[in-house]
Amino acid sequence: MPFSNEFSAHSLGSGWIEASYMSPKQRVFLQSQRYVSSGATEPFLSGSNSNYVEEMYYTWLENPKSVHKSWDLFFRNANAGAPPGQAYQTHLPDLSKSRALLFQSHGLAKTAGKAEKLVEDHLIRGHHVAQLDPLGILDADLDSFVPSDLITTIDKLGLYGLHESDLDKVFRLPTITFIGGDETALSLREIIKRLENTYCQHIGLEFMFINDVEQCQWIRQKFETPGVMKFTNEEKRTLLARLVRSTRFEDFLARKWSSEKRFGLEGCEVMIPALKTIIDKSSEMGVEYVIMGMPHRGRLNVLANVIRKELEQIFCQFDPKLEAGSGDVKYHLGMYHERINRATNKKITLSLVANPSHLEAVNPVVQGKTKAEQFYRGDTEGKKVMSILLHGDAAFAGQGVVYETFHLSDLPSYTTNGTIHVVVNNQIGFTTDPRMARSSPYPTDVARVVNAPIFHVNADDPEAVMYVCNVAVEWRNAFHKDVVVDLVCYRRRGHNEMDEPLFTQPLMYKQIHKQVPVLKKYADKLIADGTVTLQEFEEEIAKYDKICEEAYTRSKDKKILHIKHWLDSPWPGFFNLNGEPKSMTCPPTGIPEDMLNHIGNGASSVPLEGFKIHGGLSRILKGRLEMTKNRVVDWALGEYMAFGSLLKEGIHVRLSGQDVERGTFSHRHHVLHDQEVDKRTCVPMNHLWEQQAPYTVCNSSLSEYGVLGFELGFAMASPNALVCWEAQFGDFHNTAQCIIDQFISSGQAKWFRHNGIVLLLPHGMEGMGPEHSSARPERFLQMSNDDSDAYPEFSAEFDVSQLYECNWIVILLPFRKPLIIFTPKSLLRHPEAKSSFDEMVSGTSFRRVIPEDGAAAHTPNEVKRVIFCTGKVYYDLIKERKNQDLEKHVAITRLEQISPFPFDLVKEELEKYPGADLVWCQEEHKNIGYYDYVKPRFRTIVNHTRPIWYVGREPAAAPATGNKNAHLVSLRRFLDTVFNLEAFEGKMF
């Protein structure tokens, strides 16, 4: 292959790259370009002519005397690192003379370059004319135009300056092509034939955009070498048997449940043997665990024939009277299964992650789970754990999370060392024609951004599909990079089995109704060539049909359903201790004071010698040390204490998000940067204890949807880890709302999935505008599942039943729940926002409610008003109360846990001040924040006998103002109201 055009254009367009960063090949190429640009000789490096310099270079490496002495001098200088422009000499020879030495035939020096141009055009554009559509009516690239410079018929030879008389002339082949195999020369006719067979038949290859010569040559060798796409009779018989299972499974469901939605695979039955081939080949190369994500089309078939879920477990879910089970439809469910791979006789673990109808939302979740499994196994190269992602063509092109996930693929803390993407290209999205669904030629073009090779293949050619899948696995194993297999197929039925596709795609579906199924096509082929007999084929069908019928009979047993089959991330041993269920209690979370001091000292130091930090950071570290001596912590140091104590207990901590290493508000500084040595960093928290769990803190790409999904997947892998995602500002979770709604809030209810993901959402009304103020807490509260009208029963000692029933919270518990924390911004440096060691030492626990402990608490009968609040507004309230000298008459109680609502502790506070007004005060607008959530719960506690008044900002569409003066005026207004002790007298409620 020639030096990449993209590489050369970029390099020359943006100035000369420093020679010290170049490989010898790159240096030679750029030096040659510089020589040409000087006008010293003909423009021999334009287009395909750049091949000749490269070919001459390779020839020179083998034998320096094989080229002209001036070229020998040029290559020696360039290889030695001569600065740009100084390797060449003015007496370089005419390249046309060297060309004859490099690529010649029987006197055909003039036509040799034209023949090589023909080779290049097939490499770059051959996929545009490949026969990819099984229906034969559409062009996979949405363009029926055949590039004029791409030879497909003999009569176009003239475009290359060639003639029919040249067809039987023999050309010596350059070493950069593999179409000759062991032959070094071929006739032009044979060259064209082999190129068309490789690049213009049922496989379309897109890879010439990759800027790595080695990778491109690797792909060329896999597909150009004659005879590579051959299968033994045994391999063909196995392929046929897998097609039988894939096809007959769908046929069986259609016969038994003709009126049920199942999102069948008809039209792409080859996907099942394709996945099994990927898994077999990966197992052969050492992979032990495959994690998969996919949309609903074909999921039941994958569960049955790839994951090997028991058929009766699938069939029994079609029973409309089924009472037990998940809160989701059967074609959204996942599974985890360990079994022996029959092709390799090795143990393989397969996990299919549950997914909602938000088709591509599962992509980052799968990647995060894969990364976690690799991390905990020490699998730094992805040799043991890998991911497979299946996509629909319309969703792959249309869903932005696909792009976000691809951009995580090569980031150090997010890479999974290569994912195999399989696109089920139905050439339609629900009812939308692809010409209306995307602007790119192919649905897979998004993969080009990370230089992932794309293998398009006609799904009605099963052997071509199997070969492409094998190459995809070998690519991942060799280069640890993503690869895409685009199965160009069709959808035999509508979007679902009840849909009528002829309404919108009449011509396509008239052709589909005539289409011979791939199973019959392939069976006829194998019967015709004697690989199998008709009797053997029919026996294979009868055998699988019998398996389905027997499973159907067993599925009638109502006791057969097992929830364990829906778990895609089981946590063996976590929920039990010595075979018994763990005690449902909440142990103290405090730690010894000497541990607090040790962590505080670690947070204040730089553990590496000779490491020079920024002067401003030195002051921050000194401040931490001073706080430790004074036995107090602010938010940043408190976070350090929490993380550090978990690390000592062997709990892995991972903190991810935009700029989390330093912290958006410059408060965290968990990664220190040497001010004099580039890329030298230090993470002090990884140096706290000799035997400690690792701490991972990593800045993410500028993504919320993809990164939050990734961290959710990471948290799925193990209960013995603290995985945190921090939004740069709390409201930025808006663009990750799909992950919150579909996975975090409802994951346990739908899929029995426990998860301990923690969301850190900076929140606080400070006049910084609507997009930098509110984390929209009302959204999370609205999705909380506790009943505002039901007062829960509490034992004498607080138990965890309320927490167990809710959908999100987490403490040190025998189960895992997601946690949403509205983290501070201005309070990060507020002098009053600190906690004493006394609140963190051994025997202490998280305080769901922090009651009034000042003068008002000691004279409760004199208290005229109790203000309940949460968050930053507390500090505004206590300051104003002191200014108005109302500390004996107004009590202020903080709710640290909003949901599930702390009914028991709030009741104690209400009973303590029986004669006082009850006020809920928040800085958020009335229709935003917490009021609509807490109001009915307060009323439930008092049985609707006392009002709970609201004080705060008036309702508004935007969550905050961006005008500082307007912010202060509204703050002043509600502070005046909340401390006006006559404000609510005589008012009805």
UniProtKB/TrEMBL annotation:
Reported cofactor(s) = Mg(2+); thiamine diphosphate
Query: What enzyme class is recorded for this protein?
Result: oxidoreductase
Q: Return the SMART domains for the record.
A: Transket_pyr
Q: Which GO terms describe its cellular component?
A: mitochondrial matrix; oxoglutarate dehydrogenase complex
Q: Which reaction does it catalyse?
A: N(6)-[(R)-lipoyl]-L-lysyl-[protein] + 2-oxoglutarate + H(+) = N(6)-[(R)-S(8)-succinyldihydrolipoyl]-L-lysyl-[protein] + CO2
Q: Taking the first listed entry, what is the main subcellular location of this protein, grouped into a coarse class?
A: mitochondrion
Q: Which UniProt keywords apply?
A: Calcium, Glycolysis, Magnesium, Metal-binding, Mitochondrion, Oxidoreductase, Thiamine pyrophosphate, Transit peptide
Please name the Pfam families in this protein's record: 2-oxogl_dehyd_N, E1_dh, OxoGdeHyase_C, Transket_pyr
Q: Which domain of life is it from?
A: Eukaryota
A Gene Ontology annotation in the biological process aspect, one of them, is: tricarboxylic acid cycle
Subcellular location per UniProt equals: Mitochondrion matrix
The Transketolase-like pyrimidine-binding domain, residue ranges = 633-830
Q: Output the Gene Ontology terms for molecular function.
A: metal ion binding; oxoglutarate dehydrogenase (succinyl-transferring) activity; thiamine pyrophosphate binding
Would you identify the family this protein belongs to, as annotated? Belongs to the alpha-ketoglutarate dehydrogenase family.
| Protein task | 2-oxoglutarate dehydrogenase (E1-like) component of the 2-oxoglutarate dehydrogenase multienzyme complex (OGDHC) which mediates the decarboxylation of alpha-ketoglutarate in the tricarboxylic acid cycle. The OGDHC complex catalyzes the overall conversion of 2-oxoglutarate to succinyl-CoA and CO(2) while reducing NAD(+) to NADH. The OGDHC complex is mainly active in the mitochondrion. Involved in the inhibition of cell proliferation and in apoptosis.
Name of the protein described by the UniProt record: 2-oxoglutarate dehydrogenase-like, mitochondrial
Q: Which organism is it from?
A: Chelonoidis abingdonii
Q: Which gene carries the instructions for this protein?
A: OGDHL
